Amino acid sequence: MSRLTTVLVLPILFDLVLSITFHLPVNTRKCLREEIHKDVLVTGEYEVSEQPTAKCTLKITDSSGHILYTKDDASKGKFAFTTEDYDMFEVCFESKSPMGTGRVLDQLVNLDMKHGVEAKNYEEIAKVEKLKPLEVELRRLEDLSESIVNDFAYMKKREEEMRDTNESTNTRVLYFSIFSMCCLIGLATWQVFYLRRFFKAKKLIE
User: Fold this and answer.
1) Which residues form a coiled coil (predicted)?
2) CATH code at 108?
């Protein structure tokens, strides 16, 4: 039984909502990957079309392979988790059927995933804190501004780390080049003296 794996990498920085629909062929696995910052709430809602002879499994993992959410025979549901560190997270749907690939129709998968500001339920916050509509909107804009500032701060930090790495690499390459030149000069000098002694021993030169 052949097995096909498809991976979609989504380099999303400021897009806080991921809504996608795709067809999942039987006995295949499709994954979506996204980088998310630390301490960010992630919520999602999914729906998989019913197929009597095929079952779909949903699994969400981080780059270390830790399972954040899993659901066998997934058809419709929701999930939520909070990230512990900045990482690449993978959402995988896998369809399995004992009847093979020629007799079973593809399953239609709908995935709506939100994180950060969009994942917060501001209606519940308004009820708990008794906020007016304008205050709720200001709270949402404040959280969005904070998220953007954090994104820029992270980008600046990464840029500084990359610059330090480049400078360190350049310094090491310079030292290695100097060391290589010294070795070559030393080897060439040794060869000159060795050949001179050899030719003197053979009385080819005085």
Assistant:
1) none
2) 2.60.120.380
